[in-house]
Each structure stands twice: as C-alpha cells, then as structure tokens.
Design goal:
single chain; 422 residues; alpha/beta; pyruvate-formate lyase- activating enzyme; 2 domains; 7-stranded mixed β-sheet; 3-stranded mixed β-sheet; 16 helices; globular
C-alpha cells in the first residue's frame, strides 16, 4: 500500500462527541447524487492551498491544517442511525472542508470502523478523497459494492506531482491516487474523478488538461467531473493569494482580474467560466467520458422518484452544454418537482407510509397498474391520478420517463441515447 503523507509532530487533534452521524444531503443540488452524508473529521492536514474550507462561512476554529476535530463517537451513532433510514440512497463520505482519509485516519481508524458497519447494510456508498489510504479498507468497500454499490471518487487536477506538491502538500501523490483508482476499478467498484478546482494558468492549461485526461482514461475511470476555482473573499482568498505571490508571482495580476468582483460565492468573472466550460466539455468528449455521475451508476440505487429527479436535472446540464434549447425541459422539471415535493411532504408526515408506494404512484402515472396484493397505497393517501404527460405537460418527455421507469432503460450520457440494460 502506498504510504500516507506524514502526520507531522505539530498536528493537534481535538476529540469531539457529536449528537448525530448522518446529515440529509440535498439530492437535487448534489453533484455526487448523495442522499445522506457524514464526515469523521473537520479541518484537514492535506493543507490544500485553495481549500474552500478555510472560508469564514465554515468557521473551523484554530489552524485549519493542524487543529483537526475528531468525531470519536461517529461510528457508534452510525450503527444506530443507518438501520432507521426510511429512504434508500447513497451515503456520501467526505466534505469540502475535510477529507475522511487524511493522515490522522491512519491512527484513529474511524473510517475503518464505519466501513465495517456499512458493509453489513444495503445502502450504496460514495467516498470523496485525495488519499490513497482508502486502499487500506478496499476489502470492506468491495463488500459494500457486492450488496449495493460503492463509488470511489478521487479529487485530482494535477498531471504533474511537482505542481501538486506546491498546491496540495499533504495529499497523496499523483501516482498513488491513480493506483488507488485502478485498484478500486479492478475490484468492480465505480470510479470517478473530481477534476476540481482547476487553477487558472496552472492546471486549467491545455497542456495539463490533456495530460490529466489521458492518464485518467488509462485507468478506465467511469466519469470525470471538472470545474473551476472559487475564491471566497476573506481568509480563503487571502491565504491563496499570499501563496500565489510566493510561488507564481507572474499570475497575481491574472487572479486579481479574474476575482476582482469578490463575489460571496467566490466565482470568477462570468467570461472566464464561459471560456473554460466548453474546453472542459471538449476534453470529456475526446476521451468519451461523461462529466456527471452516469445514469447507470445510480440506477436502482435510489427510489424511482429520486432517480427521475436526478436524471431530469442532469439532462438539463447535458443539453445546455450542447447548446440545445432546454426551456421546455425546465418547465417540465418544475412541474415534476412540484408534484414530488408535495407528495413527499405528505409521506414525511406519516411515518407508517412506505416510500415504495411513492414509487408505485410514479409507475401508475406511467401507466403501470400495481400487481395484485402488492404495494397497496396507504388508505389515507391520495393515489396518483391522470398521466405523466399531463403532470409534465410534455408528451415526449413523459414517454422518455416511461421508458426509464417501466422498461428500466438507461440514458448514455455520452451519446444521449436511451439503452436497454442487458
């Protein structure tokens, strides 16, 4: 196993007991289709210069790279909470302000205990990391994959380890991360790369992107999700710009220009994003890898109503990237979400209602009658009426969703064609 970066003698762990392990994730806004999430640590020894977790909005007390909060009791809470979940969906591990497999995990082994618990459950799991230490628990994550699905996501933007050492000094080396991707792929797991944040003039160059995408294609990842850098005004931006001045003073003027608006989101000038995203889409197209988690990955891992929700939102992104008019699709998506949110609010108020019955409602809208003696709707609920075409106001899209729900076809995110699953 590749060695993890040194923890350092100046590391200051702080034990903290939390009241709950799992948080509900915003499925509609999540780029990794997570339903639930948790993180065993706060702050991060990887010390990535650009990390959004340094921003004031997250308030990580102390030195971000050394004062690591350790949620010691998280595995015990997870063991209690995971069987109580009413809806199926991905459990996403990691966050924008920490890494579950940062160096302190080699000693604390909280993730190992969590993996042992999740290997006995039927929920799919996603890990997001910059660390090859995840290989330590490969056998456990393979057990998760055998029961449902395990998705291994690696954050990687550098093709050269020389630049990685400057901007991600405590994270695993490039070759180690690629080897981890290869090993998880060989174990049958889904693998993807978060090629974000790409640094203007450093990792967003054509030279770096070409080399990076070629290396990722060689290890046969399932998708590559690229995006640019955000610099929130305050601690995050100040820290980054100070580091930039020391290591790439020639780029200070460029960054001053791109981020001069000091948007709360940290986004650069709109013109930069307009230039960057088509280039990224072209690189994805060249290696024939989607820029989103493919439909085939989350198919059957979510409730049908959530699967359709994610699929419709992904279609908006996929079509907009190709210059296709998405106004009719946006209208249909809003109508679907209005229906879904209304029905889910009712199901949430009645804990005796089964979410499988909401799947049955969607199937009924697609013209499927429930099998005799199976999946009857709650007596106090309102059964689905009408048709999906009426709900969406779009017959063509209703037929498409019907193929997904009834015939269980999957959408190829590269060709945008519906395909039967053999």
């Amino acid at each position: 196993m590749p060695s993890s970066p040194s923890q350092g003698e100046d590391l200051r762990p702080h034990s903290r007991h939390v009241k709950t392990a799992l948080r509900r994730a915003n499925l509609s806004g999540s780029f990794v289709v997570g339903k639930y999430s948790f993180s065993p640590y706060m702050a991060c020894r990887h010390g990535c210069v650009y990390c959004d977790g340094r921003a004031e909005r997250y308030y990580v007390e102390g030195d971000f790279e050394r004062d690591i909060v350790v949620r010691e009791n998280l595995p015990d809470l997870l063991l209690r909470e995971i069987p109580r979940l009413r809806e199926k969906g991905f459990v996403s591990i990691g966050s924008g302000i920490s890494d579950a497999y940062q160096p302190i995990e080699a000693r604390k082994r909280i993730m190992e205990r969590c993996a042992e618990i999740l290997a006995t459950q039927d929920h799919p799991v996603t890990i997001m990391t910059k660390s090859a230490l995840a290989l330590r628990d490969l056998d456990l994550w393979a057990q998760v994959n055998a029961r449902s699905r395990f998705m291994f996501l690696v954050s990687l933007t550098h093709a050269s380890d020389e630049t990685r050492q400057v901007w991600e000094p405590g994270a695993s080396g490039i070759d180690d991360r690629l080897e981890a991707l290869r090993r998880f792929k060989d174990a049958g797991c889904v693998t993807g790369v978060l090629a974000m944040p790409l640094l203007p003039g450093i990792t967003d160059t054509e030279e770096n992107l070409k080399a990076l995408y070629d290396r990722l294609a060689e290890v046969d990842v399932d998708f590559i999700m690229p995006n640019g850098l955000t610099l929130r005004p305050g601690r995050q931006k100040d820290h980054f710009m100070s580091h930039l001045a020391r290591h790439r003073s020639d780029l200070v003027d460029l960054y001053d220009d791109l981020y001069r608006e000091d948007r709360p989101s940290g986004a650069p000038r709109t013109s930069y994003a307009g230039e960057l995203h088509p280039r990224l889409a072209a690189h994805n197209a060249e290696v024939r890898l989607p820029g989103l988690v493919p439909h085939r990955v989350y198919r059957n891992q979510l409730h049908l109503y959530d699967e359709v929700n994610v699929l419709l939102r992904h279609m908006l992104e996929l079509y907009e990237a190709r210059g296709i008019d998405t106004r009719p699709l946006k209208t249909a998506c809003k109508r679907y979400m209005t229906w879904l949110e209304t029905r889910k609010a009712q199901y949430n108020r009645h804990r005796s209602w089964r979410y499988e019955d909401l799947d049955a409602e969607l199937a009924a809208l697609c013209g499927v009658r429930p099998a005799s003696g199976r999946g009857t709707l709650p007596l106090t609920s309102t059964p689905a009426t009408g048709t999906l075409a009426t709900l969406l106001g779009n017959e063509k899209l209703a037929a498409f969703v019907g193929d997904v729900v009834v015939k269980r076809k999957t959408l190829d995110y590269v060709t945008l064609e519906l395909r039967p699953v053999g």
